[in-house]
């Protein structure tokens, strides 16, 4: 059951800036393209940083209040320099967290969560920018139609992978929630079946009422004579 890849969901036409792009031009790019972040690339189109709306707002945050009602928050030297920057190169966050187009959606999601970022620059084998993938892009897998999810579970998981007859387990899917009802040949297959179904793109949860023909999870007792003979 192949997962959707980053290449399937990423944005390929990426708006970029250079390190010398002026502050106001970066702000204009945000406005014209309705985006919230821009990769900063070098002459070889390799990403060297990212400028986000938060980076631009930092300049507003350090402005003094003319009426003196609010105190400007304290900043360290690095944040202060970025707040006073005039170009994308000074504003950007660096280094860039990157992904490859061949990564699966779960791999990209784990990297975003681990690095605590909202987007990943997608690069090719020599580090050139080929796309960008955001949290919203990764969530597209949950827009899969219930029918498509059900067919993948019935045909790929239960049929092709587990080798079950079509009538062995009934599958229903509603709003991404999978329900399995039926009988498996061995009890040990229940957690395997549940895990495989959870791994299908678009699955929100898995519930089951599964029975089994053979309980292969309980230890078999040795015959006492056989045990004595062995000793």
Structure write-up:
It is a single chain. This protein is of the alpha/beta class and 231 residues long. The protein folds into two domains: 6-141, CBS-domain (Roll); 144-214, Histidine-containing Protein, Chain: A. The chain has ten helices and eight strands. The protein has helices at 6-9, 23-33, 53-61, 77-83, 88-91, 105-115, 135-138, 146-161, 189-198, 224-230; strands at residues 37-41, 47-52, 98-100, 119-123, 129-134, 169-174, 177-186, 205-214. It has a three-stranded mixed sheet with strand order 3-4-5. A three-stranded mixed sheet has the order 6-7-8. A hairpin with a 5-residue loop joins strand 1 (37-41) and strand 2. It is elongated, with a radius of gyration of 27 Å. It starts with 5 loop residues before the first helix and ends with a helix.
CATH architecture of the largest domain: Roll
What CATH calls the topology of the largest domain is CBS-domain
What's the order of the H and E elements? HHEEHHHEHEEHHEEHEH
The total strand number stands at: 8
Shape designation: elongated
Number of domains: 2
| Beta-strand proportion | 15-25%
CATH class of the largest domain: Alpha Beta
Structural class: alpha/beta
Number of helices: 10
How would you sum up the major sheet?
3 strands, mixed
Short description:
This protein has ten helices and eight strands.
Task: Please render the helix and strand layout as text.
Elements: H1 6-9, H2 23-33, E1 37-41, E2 47-52, H3 53-61, H4 77-83, H5 88-91, E3 98-100, H6 105-115, E4 119-123, E5 129-134, H7 135-138, H8 146-161, E6 169-174, E7 177-186, H9 189-198, E8 205-214, H10 224-230
Parallel strand pairs: 3-4, 7-8
Antiparallel strand pairs: 1-2, 4-5, 6-7
């Amino acid at each position: 059951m192949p997962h959707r890849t980053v290449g399937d969901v990423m944005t390929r036409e990426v708006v970029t800036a250079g390190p010398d792009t002026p502050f106001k031009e970066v702000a204009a790019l945000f406005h014209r393209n309705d985006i919230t972040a821009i990769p900063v690339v070098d002459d070889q189109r390799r990403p060297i940083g990212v400028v986000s709306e938060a980076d631009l707002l930092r300049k507003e945050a350090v402005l003094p209040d003319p009426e003196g009602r609010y105190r400007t928050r304290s900043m360290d030297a690095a944040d202060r320099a970025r707040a006073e920057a005039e170009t994308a190169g000074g504003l950007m966050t660096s280094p860039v967290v990157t992904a490859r187009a061949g990564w699966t959606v779960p791999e990209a999601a784990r990297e975003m969560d681990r690095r605590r970022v909202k987007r990943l620059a997608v690069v090719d084998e020599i580090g050139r920018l080929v796309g960008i993938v955001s949290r919203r892009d990764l969530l597209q897998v949950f827009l899969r139609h219930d029918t498509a999810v059900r067919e993948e579970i019935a045909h790929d998981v239960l049929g092709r992978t587990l080798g079950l007859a079509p009538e062995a387990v009934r599958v229903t899917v509603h709003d991404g929630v999978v329900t399995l009802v039926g009988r498996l040949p061995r009890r040990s297959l229940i957690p395997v079946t549940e895990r495989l179904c959870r791994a299908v793109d678009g699955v929100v949860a898995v519930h089951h009422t599964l029975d089994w023909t053979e309980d292969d999870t309980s230890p078999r007792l040795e015959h006492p004579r056989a045990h004595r003979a062995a000793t």
